[in-house]
Design goal:
single chain, 198 residues, Rna Polymerase Sigma Factor, Chain: A, 8 helices, 78% helix
């Protein structure tokens, strides 16, 4: 038997021992499993999201979930594959939420744009006022081009300050669907505003 094969088998035996200890609630076993897999998971995660700190945060949360689900842990056949799949799913889900927050922030900045700080000449103030008016008109026109469903989602979120859960309930969709609808609506709105201002 080659030394490489022996080393791999030893690692698998150790992993099985740690899984059994984790099943019994041993937090140190969780730390050992984390140390065994963290380098691979960071490298794997960076294929999908190029933000090391964020990937590491998701891995940390993944291991917390693993500890919470310790009663089912002995049913996992291949821990490395399980962790990689779980991380990938988590990264895609969380990345969509992250992108939605960016879209919401961009939209709020657009709505709250305050041009009153400009202290230059009256001609420059007039040009800036005209720009603000063009921007407002573009947002209004872009909003009117969205579907009623999309307009409702934006209205509920930004005018009525509803949470995703409340939007989902009011629109009779799942929370995930409400989040996706809002993300797509804001992205589309931003693209339409950009085209109208060209």
């Amino acid at each position: 038997m080659s030394p490489l094969k022996t080393s791999k088998e030893d690692a698998l035996d150790f992993e099985q021992k740690m899984l059994k200890r984790l099943h019994l609630g041993d937090i140190e076993a969780l730390g050992s499993l984390y140390d065994m897999h963290v380098d691979h998971l960071v490298e794997f995660g960076l294929h999908y999201v190029k933000d090391v700190a964020w990937v590491e945060d998701q891995i940390h949360d993944l291991f917390i979930e693993l500890f919470k689900a310790k009663q089912k842990i002995l049913h996992i056949q291949n821990l490395r594959a399980y962790l990689s799949t779980s991380l990938k799913r988590r990264l895609f889900k969380k990345n969509k939420s992250k992108e939605l927050l960016v879209e919401e922030d961009n939209f709020r900045q657009l709505l709250n744009k305050d041009w009153n700080y400009i202290e230059s000449s009256s001609e420059s103030k007039w040009i800036d006022c005209e720009h603000v008016e063009n921007l407002r008109l573009a947002v209004k026109t872009a909003m009117e081009s969205l579907t009623n469903h999309q307009q409702s989602a934006i209205h509920l979120r930004f005018v009525e300050n509803k949470s995703y859960g409340e939007i989902a309930e009011q629109m009779d969709v799942s929370k995930a669907s409400a989040r996706t609808l809002l993300y797509r609506s804001l992205k589309l709105l931003r693209e339409k505003v950009r085209l109208l201002l060209v």
